[in-house]
């Protein structure tokens, strides 16, 4: 696949997605030649609600996609549609097309069938790829978590919690109030152990009986 970006816009996101979508489409739709995919810009066309979205040229095997103001998914779906036309071209279907001179209805019917196939297969191909792509993303996310060290996981959880708490300050205040009212949360102030006052001797006088204190002092002085 060759991508030519003529739009002058930064399409790295779409190009990145195409790296995954294009091989998938080639395998699903089964075409043997690589087309050229051209991104084009046409502000006048984009302003028109019924403007063109993309087209395929069977002679140059080029898919041209208009990219102005379009969601990446929409652009990829367009490409998927045009890739079905490319497949039809690879199968020689364009050459089988009845000439307009042979009757409008006949060639019209032929084109309608080609178009039907492009809509159906193009949309399904894109949808199936999208499902698989999302599934892979989820799995990769899981793997990344598995490769983290405990400290990295802790940091992630801490950051997430911080964010959550910052966003839900009022929620927690309210939650606490509700719990208190329902008596599920009883706030019993924790008792701090009293620190003994005074120095060593004073403490003995306070804590022991006077008598014991005297004894102790005598003993202390003798030594
Ligand atoms: Zn078409």
Number of domains: 2
Spell the H/E element sequence: EHEHEEHHHHHH
Which ligands, by name, code or SMILES, are bound? zinc ion
Percentage of residues assigned to helices: 55-70%
Find the count of extended strands (DSSP E, 2+ residues). 4
Task: Provide a descriptive summary of the structure in words.
This protein has 223 residues and is of the alpha/beta class. The chain folds into two domains: 2-99 and 114-142, Collagenase (Catalytic Domain), CATH 3.40.390; 193-223, no CATH class. Helix content is 62%, strand content 8%. The protein contains eight helices and four strands. It has helices at 12-30, 43-47, 72-90, 104-146, 150-167, 169-181, 200-207, 210-222, and strands at residues 2-5, 36-40, 54-57, 62-66. It has a four-stranded mixed β-sheet with strand order 1-2-4-3, covered by helices on one side. Strand 1, helix 1 and strand 2 (36-40) form a beta-alpha-beta unit. The longest helix has 43 residues, at 104-146. The radius of gyration is 38 Å and the shape is rod-shaped. The termini are far apart. The mean pLDDT is 84. The structure holds zinc ion. Zinc ion binds next to helix 3 and helix 4. Zinc ion (ZN) binds at residues 81, 85, 115, 118.
């Amino acid at each position: 696949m060759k991508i030519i970006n003529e739009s002058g816009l930064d399409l790295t996101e779409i190009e990145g997605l195409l790296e995954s979508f294009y091989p998938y489409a080639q395998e699903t739709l089964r075409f043997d030649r690589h087309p050229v995919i051209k991104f084009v810009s046409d502000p006048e066309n984009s302003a028109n609600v019924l403007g063109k979205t993309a087209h395929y040229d069977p002679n140059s095997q080029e898919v041209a996609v208009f990219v102005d103001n379009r969601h990446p998914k929409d652009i990829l779906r367009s490409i998927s549609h045009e890739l079905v036309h490319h497949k039809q071209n690879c199968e020689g279907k364009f050459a089988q097309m009845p000439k307009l001179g042979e009757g409008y209805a006949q060639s019209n019917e032929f084109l309608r069938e080609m178009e039907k196939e492009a809509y159906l297969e193009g949309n399904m191909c894109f949808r199936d790829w999208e499902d698989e792509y999302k599934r892979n993303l989820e799995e990769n996310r899981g793997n990344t978590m598995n490769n983290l060290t405990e400290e990295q996981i802790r940091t992630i959880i801490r950051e997430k919690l911080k964010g959550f708490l910052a966003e839900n300050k009022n929620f927690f205040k309210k939650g606490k109030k509700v719990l208190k009212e329902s008596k599920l949360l009883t706030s019993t102030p924790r008792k701090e152990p009293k620190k003994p006052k005074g120095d060593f001797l004073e403490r003995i006088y306070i804590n022991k009986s006077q008598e014991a204190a005297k004894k102790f002092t005598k003993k202390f002085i003798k030594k």
